[in-house]
Design goal:
- The protein has 413 residues and is an alpha+beta fold.
- It has three domains: 55 residues, no CATH class; 213 residues, Alpha-Beta Plaits; 126 residues, no CATH class.
- The chain contains 13 helices and eleven strands.
- β9 and β10 form a beta hairpin.
- α5 runs antiparallel to α7.
- It starts with 5 loop residues before the first strand and ends with a helix.
- It binds the ligand C=CC1=C(C)c2cc3[nH]c(cc4nc(cc5[nH]c(cc1n2)c(C)c5CCC(=O)O)C(CCC(=O)O)=C4C)c(C)c3C=C and fe (ii) ion.
- Fe (ii) ion binds next to α11.
- Its cofactor is heme b.
Length: 413
């Protein structure tokens, strides 16, 4: 069983064996049986199906919400510290937020003021992840502890960024496999912010629900592509080195942490949907039906970047997104992509305000997101169909040990 997911057994089991129940939850699929075999939850509340009972630990070497499979619902919220608030207020805020996040992720009420919105549902794989933006260090007098990895991202020629919906002192990422559970966490943390911090921007996203497919499958984005296939696997030898800050660095408080680049990328769906299937597939270099490379095989087959077609041209075109972004084309630059789709209706321009809340995780953005985005900016076939509308970069510290709160190693040192 994964270290990252626990099952609230008393509320789940009933007629199922423990192994069966855990398997359903971890598979992320659930399937019909996952929703059928319910037990009386006794004092813990009503019984739960596998999706409701799945629980991610709050404490650990890394914060939750990085390596876990992306959940069905997501909220991304940036806060700015209130005028006059500094380090003392930030310490109190991170203590309050950490205490609330621990209870929320355990599926427990957050005290007398709990709104009951998530009552009955269980943890639903809720994760709450906290990050600090570059401006946080100015506001709290901690400039000497600001990592150089938080240096501003370069300006890319295709950027069309809205500064009001970019950056921020603090960032909260919420993910859950139930919309009410995710909303409950969002409201609770907004309430707990009190007078210390105000919401700067908020974005809401989604992914496929667990149980929608008979077995776990890579999700699709709103262009219809299978998206996430070639993500580095947590079991890979170099995964930790690429994604997490290693001990012994210039900012010891960031050991076990990671840097999140967050970009709201609008999809120009009216244009994309007019493109014939073959042309759509050439934009990415993979088949739309199953995500397999255009050079053949299945979804997980390696891309054959040298293969030529009968016409003597590269089967995976020179400007195909998957070619340009591949680590082997970028000196090994590797990031973990963990996005949510978003849809906020029709924009003032009359076209869908929909796309990808692109979130990527890495130990150092200057060796991962930045070089890859530089290259995509120069010649990605996908760029005709997308627009980067907001951008943010956050330092996400390691997970709290017993007795710690998130960010304590930065704020208390
Ligand atoms: C700078 C990094 C990246 C941005 C921005 C980005 C935007 C973006 N991507 C898709 C759709 C797909 N991306 C795929 C692969 C892929 N994309 C990146 C990086 C960025 N994408 C990487 C590193 C990779 C993996 C490359 C590899 O190793 O082969 C794919 C293919 C399937 C997969 O491997 O996930 C799709 C599809 C969209 C729609 C988008 C912006 C809206
Ligand atoms: Fe991509």
């Amino acid at each position: 069983m994964s270290d990252n997911l626990e099952i609230s057994r008393r509320r789940l089991l009933g007629t199922m064996g423990a192994a069966g129940a855990a398997g359903l939850a971890l598979g992320g699929a659930g399937g019909a049986a996952g929703y059928a075999a319910l037990a009386d939850g006794g004092d813990d509340g009503p019984a739960l199906a596998a999706v409701g009972a799945a629980r991610v630990p709050f404490r650990g070497a890394h914060q939750a919400g990085i390596v876990q499979p992306p959940q069905a619902c997501g909220h991304l919220v940036a806060f700015d510290l209130a005028p006059g608030a500094g380090r003392k207020e930030a310490v109190a805020l991170m203590r309050r937020w950490s205490a609330a996040a621990e209870r929320l992720m355990a599926g427990e009420p957050v005290g007398g003021s709990d709104s009951a919105v998530a009552k009955d549902a269980g943890p639903c794989s809720l994760t709450v992840t906290f990050g600090f933006g570059a401006s946080f260090f100015d506001r709290t007098g901690l400039v000497a502890r600001r990592p150089r990895e938080l240096d501003p991202l370069p300006v890319f020629s295709s950027d069309r960024l809205d500064p009001k919906r970019s950056n921020g002192d603090l960032w909260v990422q919420i993910g859950a496999d139930d919309a009410l559970v995710a909303f409950h966490a969002l409201r609770t943390l907004q309430r707990e912010a009190g007078a210390a911090a105000k919401v700067r921007w908020q974005m809401n996203g989604f992914n496929r629900s667990p149980g929608a497919t008979a077995h776990p499958m890579t999700t699709r984005n709103l262009m219809g592509q299978v998206d996430g296939t070639n993500n580095p696997k947590p079991t890979a030898r170099d995964f930790d080195r690429h994604v997490f800050v290693q001990p012994g660095g210039a900012q010891p408080w960031m050991a076990g942490g990671s840097y999140a680049v967050v970009r709201r990328i609008r999809m120009l769906l009216d244009d994309w949907e007019k493109l014939p299937l073959k042309a759509q597939e050439e934009v990415i270099g993979r088949r739309k039906s199953d995500g397999a490379p255009l050079t053949g095989g299945t979804e997980t087959t390696r891309l054959d970047l040298d293969k030529l077609g009968p016409d003597g041209r590269q089967v995976i075109p020179a400007d195909a997104h998957a070619r340009i972004s591949a680590p082997e084309q970028n000196g090994g630059a590797t990031m973990l992509r963990r996005p949510f789709s978003y849809h906020d209706g029709i924009g003032p321009d009359g076209v869908p305000d929909a796309g990808l809340l692109f979130i990527c995780w890495q130990a150092d953005p200057s060796r991962a997101f930045v070089p890859v985005q530089r290259k995509l900016d120069r010649g990605d076939a996908l760029s005709r169909f997308i627009r980067h509308e907001t951008s943010a970069l956050f330092a996400v510290p390691g997970g709290p040990a017993e007795g710690e709160y998130v960010g304590g190693r930065l704020l208390e040192a």
